[in-house]
Amino acid sequence: MLVSQLLNPTLREVPAEAEVISHQLMVRAGLIRKSASGLYTFLPLGLRVLRKIETIVREEMDAKGGQEVLMPIMQPAELWKESGRWDVYGAELFRLKDRHNREFCLGPTHEEIITDLVRGEIRSYKQLPMLLYQIQNKYRDERRPRFGLMRGREFIMKDLYSFDRDEAGLHESYQKMYDAYCRIFARCGLSFRPVEADAGAIGGTGGTHEFMVLADSGENSVVYCSGCDYAANTEKSECRPQAVEDESPQGQRKLVPTPGVKTIESLSEFLAVPKTALVKSLLYQGDDKIFLVLVRGDRTLNEIKLNNALGGFVSLQLASPELVKEILGCEPGSVGPVDTPAGLMVVADEEVPLMKRAVCGANQADHHYTDVVPSRDFRIDQVLDLRMVEPGEACLKCGAPLKEARGIEVGQVFKLGTKYSKALGANFLDENGVERSCVMGCYGVGVSRTMAAAIEQNNDEFGIIWPMPIAPYQVIIVPTSNKDALVVETADKLYQELQRLGVEVVLDDRDERAGVKFKDADLVGYPIRVTLGSKTLANGQVELKERKSGETHLINIEDLSHQVKEMVKKALKC
Amino acid sequence: MLVSQLLNPTLREVPAEAEVISHQLMVRAGLIRKSASGLYTFLPLGLRVLRKIETIVREEMDAKGGQEVLMPIMQPAELWKESGRWDVYGAELFRLKDRHNREFCLGPTHEEIITDLVRGEIRSYKQLPMLLYQIQNKYRDERRPRFGLMRGREFIMKDLYSFDRDEAGLHESYQKMYDAYCRIFARCGLSFRPVEADAGAIGGTGGTHEFMVLADSGENSVVYCSGCDYAANTEKSECRPQAVEDESPQGQRKLVPTPGVKTIESLSEFLAVPKTALVKSLLYQGDDKIFLVLVRGDRTLNEIKLNNALGGFVSLQLASPELVKEILGCEPGSVGPVDTPAGLMVVADEEVPLMKRAVCGANQADHHYTDVVPSRDFRIDQVLDLRMVEPGEACLKCGAPLKEARGIEVGQVFKLGTKYSKALGANFLDENGVERSCVMGCYGVGVSRTMAAAIEQNNDEFGIIWPMPIAPYQVIIVPTSNKDALVVETADKLYQELQRLGVEVVLDDRDERAGVKFKDADLVGYPIRVTLGSKTLANGQVELKERKSGETHLINIEDLSHQVKEMVKKALKC
């Protein structure tokens, strides 16, 4: 491809609305353009990257026996009512009506459609397992679309659904997909980590893993073990309770004045006790239930654990100040577990019962209790793992210290169980002629998101640094002059030669200064740049530059094509 | 691919709701399944056909310098308001609102989005011509979705948009696309015809051609010349007026009683005059204009010509009986051109003034005028070509007789001119630094529709007969026994061998009777079937059957793979 004929509008300025680096660079490098908030057009180079990721995903799905189908984006409301999701899915579901006033949605996911398909076609256990997938647009009416392709309203996903006879079959399909996902992100040339994750709102019986592309800018926090292969979403990671060395109090609890003190920080300072000696008391409302939650003062409550442990509320939030006043007669900053109403459930993180001499709120303004002993001085109805893990803690599996990293979620594998097959009646006859529900799994890769994540992970101050397997083109040839006939002719010859060798190459034939061409080449992020200058060429040499390392080498012109071909081949094998 | 592992649910019965053969066969052959009215899932074999058509389209677009992009399906209302189409597009546009109550539509076409993109990126004439295309879902809220993929609500199209400096450039781009389309449908192995067509509602300055796949079941009628390359949509085809040999009347027109006579047929019979002697008079309402339309009694009025000739009404229809009564004082069956109100415009087909002695309605019940002479007895305000062409008429270009055929529209090329570039301000600076509007063209291929049209054209009582280039697989191997070890092993060996040779092959390894496998193979329509039976195999032979011709040959086992490979190669070259 000749750059002069390519729609690749590069920009020097950072677009004002682009908050994250991948969004900035995708716009600046001319890969995408915005059509409306959260809706983008992929320009030719952006689309090439997308297609490469799609191809890798497709090959790995096929290798595991996945069969590709293509389901409608518009989905009838009836199916969503059958599964029970029409009413609970909320504002993120794009809904519309046809001319006959029938309701539809734009699919954010396809469990209903695929289960409807399969229930019509599956009869016997002999047809299972069945793995069906598609690569297609998905829709989500984000409250605030942002970060370019990272959180758009229209995005491209691969979604595979597995149908098995039983849990053992599901486990096998799950493992296949887990392995395939590892291969996908490795083949894309990305540094990633599968982490144990929370099942969240999709529901389902079993485990789930998220695949995180590691990047400092990632919005997810993950912990991983420095000693073994344990890794988890920080919100999911189980914690080992750690007791603090502390002496039991000599006498009864004391009510002490703490004028104006309302936070853990100020309390620790005011009383000159470490945060580990404080009990953080939080009144929560989950749907129509109210309960008091306790964690140690130095810890962070993990709301996801709290919600999972208490059975999964649709809405879980801190009680309003008015509600706190009504229940406990004080402000939120004064809440404590002593002498709470009999009907109020008190749940505590596992570390709270291990405290020997605690300080807590007294449910009255400007006072706290000291020398408080859990159980002796207050009731705990349920002890649970409710806190966020912290880097440096011991791995639950092997005891080695955990480390923390930031990541971008690009894939998730999920054991659904029989939630959808039961709701929609996707049954089969087993070996004994008994009708049973298919056991399902679902497995998603954010294809357009992977493109953004790849940039978040691979960039520098000059632009994108594409991993070879997903680069829009592998090589750019830059003649530094459009007037030196030898330069122009040699550039063209190399261009032809590399194409013949099957290398994906663009030739920057524009009538621009060399500096402009270099800047654009770096910005777009072609892995290899071949530069032809009058002087070096007079010596029979051209310059070869690796985008990633920045290293340059002078190469004899006759060796160039072969050497480039080898570099590409090597980089694709990694 | 092993058939046992393929989701390819075939049906023996014709699905009740499928009215056309392509819909019936696509469901029966397990290529698609309905998710909702006008919304389909492509199953694995159907998707393979689709992808093959897409690949052919993509290659031909790229060969003409087209650059592939991917635009959003969801389009903001603002852009459609800018182009003026938001209010006029009507009920076929799927509209929806986001959570912030902003309006969007699901794109039935992408002129607005692409023009918005280009206006942001184009500065200079040096960047033109620019040809941008995508292959993507389109949406149309059909009043009555039917015929499977022929008239769905969600369908796949390739749409290319050309941007040129001037009309000459547009003409060149148009010709490129015309040529590319000819190659596309030829490469798909289809019998087709490009025909001159009506510009219709898209608007635009220039010509347009439709590409018709010829099939007796086609919903479009086309005429083509037996002598030259002229071909046109029947509705578009210009007519040469033909005079009827007739004598002028001796005296004045006569009012004759015609009790109960209200149609051309009954009038011709009652008065014993040929239909060529009758004037058909029709009162029409175009938006808020009313006019009388005259064509010869043996001809059919062409409403599209009428509408184009009179300037393009949003709504054009026969006047209601009430309106006829109000304007002419009679029923619609008695309408005639004599003594009409002075303000009523009378438009006549070119053949009407050539009539010498005509019969027409008298604007009163149960009477007609005979011996009427146009101009002498009634006024004609405008003479126009207003009738439908008929097979057998002389070609306007060469005089040879026209023939008629039926076709399915699968593509259209269209000169848009500056309609959208002016509305949205897609301008560039020409050689003299003068700002000018891009001159645009748009070019669509119905990708999923082409799949349906291919089946309409290529089928028999046993099923689909795929042209080799778009067959889901090229070859099916059918072992007639799953018990004869030699049959099973040889089938597997051939399967491996053909795969190694790059032939797309499935092996029907199911534990089914040979008859069932044969029926399915014919139904799905694999171009080549290789059958392995115990008896023939004992003689070292297998049977090779061509789906299209139905011819079978016994081939020595050692020649089979090579011969199949050659057959495939030959069929792909056609």
UniProtKB/TrEMBL annotation, chains A, B:
<keyword id="KW-0030">Aminoacyl-tRNA synthetase</keyword>
<dbReference type="InterPro" id="IPR044140">
    <property type="entry name" value="ProRS_anticodon_short"/>
</dbReference>
<dbReference type="Pfam" id="PF03129">
    <property type="entry name" value="HGTP_anticodon"/>
</dbReference>
<dbReference type="GO" id="GO:0005829">
    <property type="term" value="C:cytosol"/>
</dbReference>
<dbReference type="GO" id="GO:0140096">
    <property type="term" value="F:catalytic activity, acting on a protein"/>
</dbReference>
<keyword id="KW-0067">ATP-binding</keyword>
<keyword id="KW-0436">Ligase</keyword>
<dbReference type="InterPro" id="IPR036621">
    <property type="entry name" value="Anticodon-bd_dom_sf"/>
</dbReference>
<dbReference type="InterPro" id="IPR002314">
    <property type="entry name" value="aa-tRNA-synt_IIb"/>
</dbReference>
<dbReference type="InterPro" id="IPR036754">
    <property type="entry name" value="YbaK/aa-tRNA-synt-asso_dom_sf"/>
</dbReference>
<comment type="similarity">
    <text>Belongs to the class-II aminoacyl-tRNA synthetase family. ProS type 1 subfamily.</text>
</comment>
<dbReference type="Pfam" id="PF00587">
    <property type="entry name" value="tRNA-synt_2b"/>
</dbReference>
<protein>
    <recommendedName>
        <fullName>Proline--tRNA ligase</fullName>
        <ecNumber>6.1.1.15</ecNumber>
    </recommendedName>
</protein>
<dbReference type="InterPro" id="IPR002316">
    <property type="entry name" value="Pro-tRNA-ligase_IIa"/>
</dbReference>
<dbReference type="InterPro" id="IPR023717">
    <property type="entry name" value="Pro-tRNA-Synthase_IIa_type1"/>
</dbReference>
<dbReference type="GO" id="GO:0006433">
    <property type="term" value="P:prolyl-tRNA aminoacylation"/>
</dbReference>
<dbReference type="GO" id="GO:0002161">
    <property type="term" value="F:aminoacyl-tRNA deacylase activity"/>
</dbReference>
<comment type="subunit">
    <text>Homodimer.</text>
</comment>
<dbReference type="InterPro" id="IPR007214">
    <property type="entry name" value="YbaK/aa-tRNA-synth-assoc-dom"/>
</dbReference>
<dbReference type="GO" id="GO:0016740">
    <property type="term" value="F:transferase activity"/>
</dbReference>
<dbReference type="InterPro" id="IPR050062">
    <property type="entry name" value="Pro-tRNA_synthetase"/>
</dbReference>
<dbReference type="GO" id="GO:0004827">
    <property type="term" value="F:proline-tRNA ligase activity"/>
</dbReference>
<dbReference type="InterPro" id="IPR004154">
    <property type="entry name" value="Anticodon-bd"/>
</dbReference>
<keyword id="KW-0547">Nucleotide-binding</keyword>
<dbReference type="InterPro" id="IPR033730">
    <property type="entry name" value="ProRS_core_prok"/>
</dbReference>
<keyword id="KW-0963">Cytoplasm</keyword>
<keyword id="KW-0648">Protein biosynthesis</keyword>
<comment type="function">
    <text>Catalyzes the attachment of proline to tRNA(Pro) in a two-step reaction: proline is first activated by ATP to form Pro-AMP and then transferred to the acceptor end of tRNA(Pro). As ProRS can inadvertently accommodate and process non-cognate amino acids such as alanine and cysteine, to avoid such errors it has two additional distinct editing activities against alanine. One activity is designated as 'pretransfer' editing and involves the tRNA(Pro)-independent hydrolysis of activated Ala-AMP.</text>
</comment>
<dbReference type="InterPro" id="IPR006195">
    <property type="entry name" value="aa-tRNA-synth_II"/>
</dbReference>
<dbReference type="InterPro" id="IPR045864">
    <property type="entry name" value="aa-tRNA-synth_II/BPL/LPL"/>
</dbReference>
<dbReference type="InterPro" id="IPR004500">
    <property type="entry name" value="Pro-tRNA-synth_IIa_bac-type"/>
</dbReference>
<dbReference type="Pfam" id="PF04073">
    <property type="entry name" value="tRNA_edit"/>
</dbReference>
<feature type="domain" description="Aminoacyl-transfer RNA synthetases class-II family profile">
    <location>
        <begin position="38"/>
        <end position="467"/>
    </location>
</feature>
<dbReference type="GO" id="GO:0005524">
    <property type="term" value="F:ATP binding"/>
</dbReference>
